[in-house]
Write a structure and sequence with these properties.
This protein has about 350 residues and is of the alpha+beta class. The protein folds into two domains: about 160 residues, PurM-like, N-terminal domain (60s Ribosomal Protein L30, Chain: A), CATH 3.30.1330.10; about 170 residues, Alpha-Beta Complex (Phosphoribosyl-aminoimidazole Synthetase, Chain A, domain 2). The strands form two sheets. It has a seven-stranded mixed β-sheet. Strands 1-2-3-6-4-5 form a six-stranded mixed β-sheet, covered by helices on one side. A hairpin with an 8-residue loop joins strand 1 and strand 2. The longest helix has 18 residues. It comes from Algoriphagus aquimarinus.
């Protein structure tokens, strides 16, 4: 075996969900291919509004959720890489209000340059998260390739009347987040070997935390819409929610929850290059962003939290319910009637 570096992040230009194809290019690909037309009435959720997973109805009271998510290493520890990739893939099922039932692994590995033992540790990490989610890692598919890539295809179930989509918000709905922001910044600090041990633990803890509250939220009628915040950053996924529902949104910059220590790295200009890619894609639809505030809004998240649209009339009841579930939430803004700009950032 060649004497090559074993720091996994050295093998990836991007990392985690920051590897996503730029929004404009992805739109070009999907539009040109015409591959997502929906003619099957049982396909309840496809790609028409850029939702988190596909949902197919199989009976009057049962629908199947399917999603696939994979990426290049976001951390150097292979066990942690596997855990983060698995938690991230499972999140798409939770974001639909569903219950995951099993998963298959997707593995690309440069077997001539990176030890297969490292790939085994990636798999171990994924199995740990699947066990925490109460599901089996049933199988998978692998290829030998020049880049290490890992992820899962996850299947889940949901009642057809309890599906949560990203395009059903209503004017006046309150916007909540279930995780702090800043994973992309911390991952970049790690890649540049600038991260502290404490901040690394924060990165892994945040990214490995399951969004399993989404399954419970599927039963909450006051939650009108839901998505998870990943590679397009908070701003990108909020704009998807707005455009899907024909609305705009106001968010309060000071209310955005950031992982402790993230601002210090931003002050040192340590953040993902794809932060600018996201900003370039969404800046024309946004107003009120000043200077480096764009980093908080456009930092590509990996295994980020859920973003919720909640009926304001049920605000107190909802917040109390989340406390009873030991689920921390942050109120960051509200959806409003559509105006000239899709998102306005308030100071």
């Amino acid at each position: 075996m060649e004497n090559t570096p074993t720091r996994l992040t050295e093998w990836s230009e991007g990392s985690g969900c920051g590897c996503k194809i730029a929004p404009a290019i992805l739109d070009q690909i999907l539009t040109a291919s015409g591959s997502f037309s929906q003619n099957d009435p049982n396909l309840l959720v496809g790609n028409s509004h850029k939702d988190d997973a596909a949902v197919y109805q199989v009976s009057e009271d049962l629908a199947v959720i399917n999603t696939v998510d994979f990426f290049t290493p976001i951390v150097d520890d292979p066990f942690d890489f596997g855990r983060i990739a698995a938690a991230n893939a499972l999140s798409d099922v939770y974001a639909m209000g569903g219950k995951p039932i099993f998963a298959n692994a997707i593995l690309s590995w440069p077997v001539e340059k990176l030890s297969p033992d490292l790939a085994a540790k990636v798999m171990e990490g994924a199995k740990t998260i699947c066990k925490a989610a109460g599901i089996e890692l049933a199988g998978g598919h692998s290829i030998a390739a020049k880049d290490p890539i890992f992820g899962l295809s996850v299947n889940g179930i949901v009642h057809p009347h309890k599906i949560k989509t990203n395009n059903a918000a209503k004017a006046g709905d309150i916007i909540y987040l279930t995780k702090q922001l800043g994973v992309g910044v911390l991952a970049t600090a790690l890649k540049r070997q600038k991260i502290t041990d404490k901040d690394y633990l924060s990165l892994v803890d945040t990214a490995c935390r399951l969004n399993s509250i989404g399954e419970i939220l599927g039963n909450h009628e006051e939650v009108h819409a839901m998505t998870d915040v990943t590679g397009f950053g908070l701003l990108g996924h909020l704009i998807e929610m707005c455009e899907g529902a024909g609305l705009s949104a106001e968010i309060n910059l000071l209310k955005l929850p950031m992982i402790e220590g993230v601002q210090e790295y931003i002050n040192q200009f340590i953040f993902p290059d794809n932060t600018y890619r996201n900003w370039n894609a969404y800046s024309a639809k946004t107003k009120g962003v000043v200077g480096m505030d764009l980093v908080k809004l456009c930092d590509p998240q990996t295994s980020g939290g859920l973003m919720l649209a909640v009926d304001p009339e049920n605000k107190a009841w909802f917040e109390d319910s989340m406390k009873q579930q030991d689920q921390v939430i942050w109120e960051i803004g509200r959806f409003i009637e559509r105006n000239e700009q899709v998102v306005e950032v308030l100071p």
